[in-house]
Amino acid sequence: MMGLILYGITHGVSSLRALERLARVDLGCMWVTGGIAPDYANIGRYICLYEHALAQEFFEAQTRTVLASTATSTA
């Protein structure tokens, strides 16, 4: 689910319904999420449940890790 959120953010997608659509039609997103395609309500529940874990410091650290590993694998 975190992969879906990160993928959406990097592609300028922020609404829950748009994230749901992205998970169902974008092949890159399908690869990142491992094929899960949650509906918008489940995405919203995930964000609410893990709101504290998605705090700025944690989120920034995770994003840096993903970007660093991506840059390393493509170099």
Q: Low-confidence segments, ≥5 residues, pLDDT <50?
A: none
Radius of gyration: 12 Å
N-to-C series of helices and strands: HHHHH
Shape: globular
Q: What is the percent of helical residues? A: over 70%
Question: Describe the biggest sheet?
Answer: none
Strand content: under 5%
Mean pLDDT: 86
Total helices: the number is 5
CA(first)-CA(last) distance = 27 Å
**Structure summary, number of beta strands:** 0
Give the domain tally.
1
Which structural class should the secondary elements be placed in? mainly alpha
Describe what you observe in this structure.
The chain has one domain. The protein has helices at residues 2-10, 16-25, 27-33, 40-49, 56-74. The chain is globular and about 30 Å long. It is mostly helical. The model has no long low-confidence stretch (mean pLDDT 86). The protein has 5 helices and no strands.
